[in-house]
Amino acid sequence: MKRISDIILYKDHHLIVVNKPGGLPAQDDPTGDISAHRMAMAYARRDLYIVHRLDRRVSGVLVFAKTKAAAAHLSKQWEQHTVRKTYLALVPRADVPESGHLVHYLTYDQKKNTTYASEEATDDGRKAELSYQVLQQLDHFMLLGIDLISGRKHQIRAQLSAIGIPVRGDIKYGSRRTNPNGAIDLHAYRLAFVHPSRGSEQIVTAPLPEDGLWDHVDPEVLSITFDRKT
Question: Is the whole-model pTM more than 0.90?
């Protein structure tokens, strides 16, 4: 486990942003395991407000607010879906379009902690949208860039599973095997939001995990796709 100081991506008087490792809970849960929230509060030596969440098995950009005003400002952006959320996922190679826009209706089963995706609207289903692009082909897997339009529980995991390309390591949603570290190969790569004090756009990018197939991702692909657009 890395020290919290090693995963700080950005900090100022209003917020602190970390690169959460996969397998680390974003906030305290019934397991009692140390969480990113608790670690960040120990680092900041103050209470921090939870603005949004990442699944335990997912890595990447996670934002905490230092003040109630900053928390309210940021939370409103998440509620209004104005935050630009970019994810990377490693999925099995498959005969799917090079890019696409997915729309499903998601139903969450709390007892099973599982989200089910349907192409047809259902009485209790919540509409979920994302766009994806195949960025790189590996031997048996491919790298997807994902723009998350809505933000539902397990959304990316459920939607990719629904089209036959579950996230690598995600046995809950159809992957054949787990990863050794218990994480799945889904990474919250970049967040772009309005800074609660300055009013200008704040973009935070999280370096890729340093293990497994992530070592085979071509940095030039990410630079061409994302960095040169900002």
Answer: yes
